What we know:
Layout: H1 7-13, E1 17-23, H2 30-45, E2 53-58, E3 75-81, H3 84-91, H4 94-103, E4 114-119
Antiparallel strand pairs: 1-3, 1-4, 2-3
Amino acid sequence: RRAILTQDHIAATAGLCSFLVCYPGPASNLNEWLSHYLDHHPPVMKQIPNVREIEILTRIDWIDAMPWQRVHHMQRNRGVFENMAVLGAALQSPIRHAMQDDYEKFPPFEGGSLHYGVSTEIVLPHRQS
């Protein structure tokens, strides 16, 4: 099926952007790292000025026979903002410093964190009634 984009959808998502964060890992103890992260970081993330939505994406393991390269990143996150100016202001807010302070308290892990600002378009599937 193809998604059908209406003018309302296009207007609602025009200019949206997302801030993606990736923690490639590995952690010394993945369960400890994830538990600490999920207990401490989301309460700070929710304070980011004008964030519309936050997704916390934790890896899962699966079995398949596809020939692609598999990565084992520990955690990925996405924050959605109205536009790049709103994201820019959020990245300059005092909450950014609180997030950095919390980052310094994470249990031991390698790989640091990678950050990306990206244009975002939300496409919803067409629902048959």
